[in-house]
Recover the amino acids of this structure.
């Protein structure tokens, strides 16, 4: 007598989760390899071009969030025409992070002592 799950879609969801985990692992490996290549090429962050998907992964945000950042002109980007693919530099991502940085109390105390 075999086990029958209460949820008939359980096996499908389990396979999808496993597939997503494998895909995420592959993406992380690709990003890691690209990062190593960039370091070995001695490129500056302003010379490294990334697409919208990579920006989403770097900042851990959604496609909708990157669209909102562009719409509000919060992040710099390049796009040939409204229907074309969007590109950023790694420096754009770093600038976004730095512009939204909140200093810790410890860092603020060090600045005040100087």
């Amino acid at each position: 007598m075999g086990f029958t799950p209460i949820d008939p879609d359980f096996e499908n969801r389990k396979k999808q989760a496993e597939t997503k985990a494998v895909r995420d692992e592959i993406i992380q490996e690709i990003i890691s390899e690209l990062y190593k290549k960039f370091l070995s090429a001695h490129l500056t962050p302003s010379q490294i071009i990334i697409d919208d998907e990579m920006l989403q992964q770097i900042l851990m945000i959604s496609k909708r969030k990157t669209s909102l950042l562009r719409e509000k002109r919060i992040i710099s980007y390049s796009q040939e025409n409204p229907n074309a693919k969007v590109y950023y530099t790694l420096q754009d991502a770093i600038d976004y992070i730095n512009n939204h940085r909140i200093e810790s109390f410890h860092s603020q105390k060090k600045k005040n002592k100087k």
The chain has one domain: 18-104.
